Each structure stands twice: as C-alpha cells, then as structure tokens.
Predict the 3D structure of the following.
Amino acid sequence: MTSSTKSKVCFFFKTSVSLRERAKLKKFIEASFRKEKKKLRSLNFIFCSDQDLLEINQEYLNHNYYTDIITFELSEKGGPVEGEIYISVDRVRDNSQQLKESTAKELHRVIFHGVLHLCGYKDKRAEEKIRMREKEEELLSIYLT
C-alpha cells in the first residue's frame, strides 16, 4: 500500500470498546479536516479507562478530575495537523446513560469533538460551546445517516 492511500488516522485500544466500520470512520474524519480546510498529517485516537485519562489530566494539565476526552495538538506552527486524542471509554459509557443516548452515538460525538478541537474550534465560553455542539451535531447527522 502506498503512503497516499494509507489512512492518516489510527485507533489504539487500551480499553475495549465497540467501534464499527473503522475504515469508513477514518475516511470521514479525513474528509472533515478537508472540509474545514485543514491539512491532516496524522491523528491517533487512544481509547482508555477513566484512570488512564485522570493520570494524563493530572500530569499534563494539572487537573484533578475525570473527563471524557483530552486532545493534544502536536502540530508544528503553520504545519499540517498532528494530534493525539485520548478518550475515556468509561466516561463515554456513563455519559451515554445519563444523556439517554446509545454508547455508539456518544462515542462518535466525542471523537468528532476532538477532531473539531484540532480544526480550531474552542469550547471554553458559552458561545463557543454552542458552536461546538452545533458542529458535533452536524457531523453526527452526516455520519450516522
């Protein structure tokens, strides 16, 4: 396989989770970057436990709480996007129950949330959160139909 056809998106599993149609998802993620006019070099998704993500949150961000996702942008300034996205499978499952959504839908929402962060979307202020949620819903509606 030549490098031009090899996916720039990789999935790694420290914790088991059902993630179907991975090739389709990788293509969709790559297309999402193109739609946002961002060049993607490489993106790794690491699916892990609450404890794994808590340790990352404490060590790298000095936060002492659980979260569903941590996104690290590793790009050189002005260069193509490179990143690592860590996702707590435990948080995704809990959130899906609280939101009364399927685990699959919530997992995809979190995946797209990380992608959007790497495309430049923020979610600290109220209006940013609203825009982020709109973009998540847009990607979900396209991907899951």
In short: The first strand starts at residue 9 and ends at 13.
